[in-house]
Amino acid sequence: MTRTTSPRAQHFDTLLVANRGEIACRVMRTARRMGLRTVAVYSDADANARHVRKADEAVRIGPAAARDSYLRVDAVLKAARRSGAGAIHPGYGFLSENADFVTACAEAGIVFIGPPATAISAMGDKSAAKARMEKAGVPLVPGYHGDDQDDALLRAAAERIGYPVLLKASRGGGGKGMRVVESGEGFQAALDGCRRESQAAFNDPRMLIEKYLTQPRHVEVQVFCDTHGNGVYLFERDCSVQRRHQKVLEEAPAPSMTAELRREMGEAAVRAAQEIGYVGAGTVEFLLDSSQEQDSRFYFMEMNTRLQVEHPVTEMITGQDLVEWQLRVAMGEPLPLAQDALTITGHSFEARLYAEDPAQGFLPATGHLEHFGLDLAGAGLDPTQVRLDSGVESGDEVSMHYDPMLAKLIVHGDDRDQALATLNRALAALDVRGVVTNRAFLQRLASHPAFRAAKLDTRFIEHHHVDLFAVHEPSAEDYASAALVALDRLGRESKSDSPWDRHDGFRLNADHRIRVGLNVPKATAPQSPAAEPIVVDGSRPHEDAPWRFDLGGTTLSANLQRLDGDAVAITLDGHRRRLQARLDGDTIVLADTQGETRLDWLRADAVDHGHHEAESTLTAPMHGTVVTLLVEPGTPVEKGMPLMVMEAMKMEHTLSAPADGQVVSFHFAAGDTVSQGEVLLEFAADE
Ligand code: ADP
Question: Which DSSP string do the residues of 318-344 spell out, in sequence order?
Answer without folding.
Answer: H---HHHHHHHHHTTPPPSS-GGG---
